[in-house]
Write a structure and sequence with these properties.
Layout (H helix, E strand, L loop, with lengths): L2 H18 L4 H17 L1 H12 L3 H22 L6 E2 L10 E2 L7 E4 L7 H13 L3 E4 L5 H13 L7 E3 L4 H13 L5 E6 L1 H11 L5 E6 L3 E5 L5 H13 L9 E6 L4 H13 L19
C-alpha cells in the first residue's frame, strides 16, 4: 500500500469516528470481547502464521496469541461501566470544576514485528475502548498477522472504518508514516520500535501537535545477586535472553553475576544453553527460530 491507500484509511477512520465516539461503553466492550473470542477460536492458525512470518517457535507464538487477547478482555472490562469523570474541589465557592473524559479521535498505531499480535491488540484495544477509530500500520515483516486480525475484527462486527490495516513495503512506509503523522485528522500516534524512528515520528507529529505515545529501544541488564536462588536465576536468564531469539526490547543484553556465585551460575546456565535447539519454529522441539531478517 502507498499514499492513496493511507488517505483512504484516514477518511474511513474519520467517518467511523463521527458515529463511534457516541457509542455506548457496553457496545464497545462487546465488540472487544467478540474480537478476542474469535482470536482464541483461531489461535492455532494465527500462531502458525506468526511463526511463518517472523520465525519464533510455535509454542511461543501460541503463547503470544493467548496473551494478546488478555488486553482485549482487560479493556472490555474497564470500559463496561464507562469512563467516569469527577467533580473537583473548587478554588472559589461559585466555581464548579468538572473533569470529563472523551475520545480524542482517530488513532494511528505503528506496530513492530517481534510481537505482531500483542502489540496490535494492546494499542487498538485501548483506543477502541475509549471510543476511537484505529489505523494500524504493521511492520513490513509481519503484515499478514495484522490482516488476519483485521479480518477477525470484521467477523466480530466491527463497523467499517473502526480498524483499518495498511501494510506496506519499507520504502512506502516512510511515505505513509509521514502522511499519517502530519495529517490534521489524526489525533494520536502510538509507536513501538527503535529510538531513531520514534524521534523522527515525534518530530513529524509536532506541526499538528498530536498526542504521541512512544515505546522505544531497550537496554536491559540482568543482575544476579549473591543471595539469589540460582536455579530460579538461571531459568529467568534463559527466559530473558533467549525468548523470541533475543528479539525483544526487554531482552537481557548483558548479564552481571556476583563473583561469589559466578562459577556455579555459569555451569548451570551453560548446561541449559547446550540443550537449546535451533531450527524451523514449526518443528516440535525447536526452542530458537531464525532471526526475522
Amino acid at each position: 500500500y502507498g499514499g492513496s491507500e493511507a488517505l483512504s484509511a484516514i477518511e474511513s477512520a474519520k467517518d467511523c469516528f463521527k458515529a463511534f465516539k457516541g457509542s455506548l461503553p457496553a457496545a464497545r466492550s462487546k465488540l472487544l470481547i467478540d474480537w478476542a473470542d474469535l482470536i482464541m477460536k483461531h489461535n492455532q492458525e494465527m500462531a502458525e502464521l506468526v511463526t511463518l512470518e517472523m520465525g519464533k517457535p510455535l509454542s511461543e507464538s501460541l503463547g503470544e496469541v493467548n496473551y494478546a487477547t488478555s488486553f482485549l478482555y482487560h479493556f472490555a472490562g474497564q470500559i463496561r461501566t464507562g469512563l467516569t469523570g469527577e467533580v473537583l474541589t473548587p478554588g472559589l465557592k461559585h466555581w464548579r470544576p468538572i473533569n470529563i473524559r472523551q475520545p480524542v479521535g482517530p488513532v494511528v498505531t505503528i506496530t513492530p514485528w517481534n510481537f505482531p499480535v500483542a502489540m496490535v491488540t494492546r494499542k487498538a484495544g485501548a483506543a477502541i475502548a475509549a471510543g476511537c477509530s484505529v489505523i494500524n500500520a504493521p511492520s513490513e515483516d509481519t503484515p499478514l498477522v495484522s490482516l488476519m486480525l483485521g479480518q477477525l475484527a470484521i467477523e466480530a462486527g466491527f463497523p467499517p472504518g473502526l480498524l483499518n490495516v495498511i501494510p506496506s513495503t519499507i520504502e512506502n512506509k516512510r511515505v505513509i508514516g509521514k502522511m499519517l503523522c502530519s495529517h490534521h485528522d489524526i489525533a494520536t500516534l502510538s509507536f513501538t520500535g527503535s529510538t531513531a524512528v520514534g524521534k523522527l515520528l515525534g518530530a513529524q507529529c509536532s506541526d499538528t501537535v498530536k498526542r504521541v505515545h512512544l515505546e522505544l529501544g531497550g537496554n536491559a541488564p540482568l543482575i544476579v545477586f549473591e543471595s539469589a536462588d540460582l536455579d530460579k536465576a538461571v531459568n529467568g536468564t534463559m527466559l530473558a535472553k533467549f525468548s523470541n531469539a533475543g528479539q525483544g526490547c526487554t531482552a537481557a543484553n548483558r548479564i552481571m553475576v556476583h563473583k561469589s556465585i559466578y562459577a556455579e551460575f555459569l555451569e548451570k546456565l551453560s548446561a541449559k544453553v547446550a540443550k537449546l535447539r535451533i531450527g524451523n519454529g514449526l518443528d516440535r522441539d525447536v526452542s530458537i527460530g531464525p532471526l526475522v531478517n
